[in-house]
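Quick illustration, no need to memorize.
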Amino acid sequence: MRSAPLRFLLLSAVPVPVSPFTGLEALLGAPPLLPAQTLQHWMLALVLHGLLISLAQRFPLLTRAGWVHAGVLGTLLWGALGWRGWLAVVGYLALGSLVTRLGFRQKQRQGLAEARGGRRGPENVWGSAATGAVLALLTTLPGAPVPLLLLGFGASFAAKLADTCGSEIGKRWGRHTVLITSLRPVPAGTEGAISLEGTGASLVGSAVMVLVLKLLGLLGTAPALLLALWVGVLATLLESWIGATLQGRVAWLTNELVNGIQTLLAALIAMGLAWGAVALGLTA
């Protein structure tokens, strides 16, 4: 029979598999306390949003149908993440709508303004928030890597606000607009066009969204904040590349679908980089 010290030495020499989720809290911070997933909680979310949407119809941010779909989205977010996840997306909607209104009359005269007076419809709601809604729902699963999912959630909305700010500011105040693939000058509003002013506005938009997420406690550590910030800008540039190379050539690739692809790319890139950093032991 082997002695106890010998058995200890043999066991200590055997490598123990390390889960790539082990260091997520060290990198991204401990997950916030999420609501209990009870029937009463979901019913409260549903009733609350029924009342809110009935009152919000008078505000010209969304179309009537857009408000209904926003109510569905809000119910999912409140049900999965509680008031903080809900308020983060309300903040995105308010900030995005405000940016859209900047220089709106001039953009109308140039034919560059959003349709319907800048009001968003159901396709805009889900193009912007489908990725975030799915990630929010995934946090309710037993054993879900909540910090990682919240990073993807945050990066998706940082990318979307970055895109809105870059597009709206670039169309109105961009002085030298070039195509991202060739850098040749193109008119403002061209799919795939970028400008220094628009790119700077994208950086500001991503930073503001990340700050909102920080204040709400959905993103905690400096690495998580910086990752969401820069991935938001990167995803906006990737969206411009898709616009320059594919949009208009692929019939089914609508602007709303491109928005959905952009937010999905932002979430996947941010989560992939975080997971890779943990798996490589870069969080120590």
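The two ends are 40 Å apart (CA to CA).
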